[in-house]
Task: structure prediction
Amino acid sequence: MTTQLQTVHLSEADFERWEQGVLTPEQIERLLAHTASCGCCGDAWFAHMSRTGEMLEEPPAYLADEILQRVRQPDVVIAQKAHTTSKRMQLFLYSLKVSMALAASIYMIFTMDTATLELIMNIFHL
Ligand SMILES: [Zn+2]
Result:
């Protein structure tokens, strides 16, 4: 990046100097102004940031082992088991409610007197 920044497109070297923090405040201002107004350089800068950013996003190799070890520890296993059990209990209680509602409906049909049954059949045109 030189004094002709406004007329010349930015290069990879300009982006690298920006990353290294060796640009003056005036150069930084011109770099930002140029990338904001020039689509070509804006895309190039984004591509540059994406390439260099990938290295930073890479997690450390030991992290996967640490996570796996932590997941196998008793307190985590117990918490996981409790969560699974409570899901099963919720399903059981739901099934119980549905069964009770069904049983109550069947009971009501069989205990209904004929007058009420005829009234309902007339309402529903059965
Ligand atoms: Zn440009």
